Structures are given as structure tokens and as C-alpha cells.
Amino acid sequence: MKRRFAVAGVSLAVVLGCGTLPAVAADSRTTTDTTVSAAPDVDVNKVKAHLNELSAIAGRNGGNRRSTGQGYDDSVAYVKGRLQAAGYTVTEQPCTSGCTSGAGPNLIAEWPHGDANNVYMFGAHLDGVSAGPGMNDNGSGSAALLETALTLAQQNPAMRNRVRFAWWTDEEQGLNGSDFYVRSLSSGERARIKAYYNFDMVASTNGGYFINHITSAAAAPMKAYWDSLGLQPEENTEGAGRSDDYSFEQYGIPTSGYAMGASARKTSAQAAKWGGTSGSAYDPCYHRSCDTLTNINTTGLDRASDGIAYTLWQRAVDTGTGGDCDTAGAVGNGGFESGTSPWTGNTGVIGAHTGGSAHDGTRFAWLGGNGSTSTESISQTVTVPPGCSQASLSYWLHIDTDESGSRAYDRFTVRAGGTTLATLSNVDAGSGYVQRSVDLSAYAGQTVTLTFTASEDYSLRTSFLLDDVTLRNG
Asked: Which of the residues 177, 285, 379, 388 has the least number of beta carbons within 10 Å of its own beta carbon?
């Protein structure tokens, strides 16, 4: 990952030794979630074997794999050879503008199956800095991506969407390789890319578990996998705008990705939940000569590799269990735990309010409860996957009122676009949260704005406490 400053490109992470991260099973497949388990286990020992090869390449070429040197070209040749042998369509794309003089090519590999109009891209930068061999930055992301691609080829599942892998040149000098690639695409080709996933420094020895745009729909399967391991991932604030996903963001393509951190320092709260040393950099060897094979956290590398495979399977593989009805994360931040985005409207109603409680976690949306004439709404635009013939919007609602009798004075509505799907009122008040749902099957394949609204009359309050909004298949 590159620095934000005008330096000859850099990456993000720091390293303390060989990893003292949380004692949550080193095998990231230790989970009882059968949906997660449906994706293949990427063998971390094979990922490390790729790292060994990249390290040896650096050793033969002045100790580094910078984009303008033979170490980079040899890295391209190694990755390309493995992919071609596995059956990929592989292209070397010379960077003819915007890249450092003498920089090697991007490497693009497409699995030639699935709907070519729905492309999911997975990428990592293959170049490193001149100071060292770049094993965490970014041998880790490159090796994890390569073994995931080889696992896909070995499994050879039925595909519903197209998968494209990329290893970028000249990232350390300013995201130049990925920027050239996206600029080179026609508007139609960009439109076919439904999401881009980036992996930059996924084995930091004092690292944390970070996800780019963690509350977005693109991030949903990535977060779901790490959530299944109890990792409590956080937003990748350190990496914002500093790696190749930014090139895609600039053209409006949804992005996400995994990272474990660079030169920023781990907080005491992060050390408490993830292990490691607070006050020290996530990767103490960031852009240094010590970014060698000893600077790799195997547990983190394993969890990232398996999370990449899980995301790929969710987005592109026909699992036979729901077709293309992947509803995971269709509603972003449905539990309100990650701020207010992507909700719009009266977002001040979202928070950890005193006087009320969440259904789960600490935050919820408190609509109404004013005891005077008022209307409050929150909205979010979601896409219902086309295969969801029985989609439903589920939510938990606690209605508390000072009204009495059987007359509806204060109302709560759920709308999809301009259509009201449900209306509740003070008459429906109860002692706690009740799970409710509305049918969204008619919106399969459509993008629609969902709106929750509370309206009160001039006196006597009614509070509508909303939490854990999700889209379900069924």
C-alpha cells in the first residue's frame, strides 16, 4: 500500500515479530456456520509456498520486487505460469501512461465461466518497495489471491457470474497500474464490473482485522465471514484512498477488501479484542528491509484467504442453495452499530440512546417519542437480487406508548418506493421487541428505496424503536 505523501509509493502495515493475534482457532474453518463452511478452505501452507517463491525471486534480484526491476517481472512470470497451467485466460497489460518509466505490466486473469455481464474483480498489487522483499506488503495479498484463484480452478464449480483476478504494477508509486487499467476500460466494460475487492497487507504481525467500506453491500460477505469467527472487524480508515480499490472508486464501482494495517498504531481497545501490542504499529516492518518471511502472521493470512474464497463463492458461484439470491448485506448497517451511513433522512434518530435499549448491540433507531405533532423517517436504497423469488424485509420493532384505547393516533409505516407495505400504531404497543417482516418478492432484480416513518399527533408520545433490519431469502 502506498503512502498519502509525495514519496516513492508505499504500502500499509507494520510488523512486530511473528504474530500474537487472538486465540480464536488458527484454522479459520473452525465455525458452525454451514453457509460459511460451504466455501472451500484455502490451504494457508500453499499460500505460504507462494510467499517463499516471491521471497526467492527478491533474493535473486537485489532483495526487492519494485515495479521497475527484474524482481517484479519475475514475480509476474511466476504468477502467470501458475494461472495458465490452471486454465485461466491470462493477459499482461503494459502500463503505457501514468506509470513510472520502466514499470512492468499489470497481470489480468479471468476464469472463463459465468455471466460475462456480471464481473466480480479481486485484486492485489504485486510490486514492492526498494527497501526490501515486501512479503507482507504486498506478497501476502498477492499470494492469498493466487491460491484462491488456483482453488477455484481445482474445484471448478458451476458459475453464475464471472470472476476476474488482477495483480497490479506500480502501486507503490501512486496506484498507477490499477488507475491505468480502469481508465483503459470503456464505460460499458466498467458497468459490467459489479464490485472490486482489494487485498493489501493481510498478514501484519501486530495487525487488526479491517474491512474497506465495512457497512457497504459490497463488504457484506467479507464481514459475514470474519463475523462468523468472532473477530469484530473494523473500518479500514488507515487505508482509505491508499490502495488500488481507490482507482475503482473514482469511477463509481463498488469496492471493499481486507487489510491488517500498516504504520498506524494499535489501540488498547484493539489489543484487548485482537491481541498484540497496543501503542505499536500494526506492521513494524512496513516499507523496511525486515519485511521478510518472518514478518508474516500465519493466522491472519489464513483468515483473509478463506474470507476471500467465501466472498468469491457468495458473489459468483452457483451453490445450488438459492441461486443468485445472495441477500447478505443487501441492507447496509441494518443494526445501526456502524454510525449512520448508508441511512438517510432524520439520521439523528440513530444512536445509543438513554431511556431505550437496542434489540442487539448498543445502537438503534428511535423514531417518534416526541409527544407532539412530528414526523421522522430514515431511508436506504437497496437492491433485491434477481433470484430472490421469496425475498422479505425483516426488522425488530419495539412500540412503547402513553396512548390508550383502540384508536390509532400515532403511526409507523414501512414503504418500498411509493408503496406502503406495512402500517403499525400505538395500538400495537407491547413490552419489548417483536420481529416483523414485509414481502419484497415483487422487487426481485430491482433497486428500491426502503423508508421507515413514524408520525405522531399533537399529544401523548409513542416511541417506535427499530433495530436489526435485514433482507432475507424467504
From this structure: 379
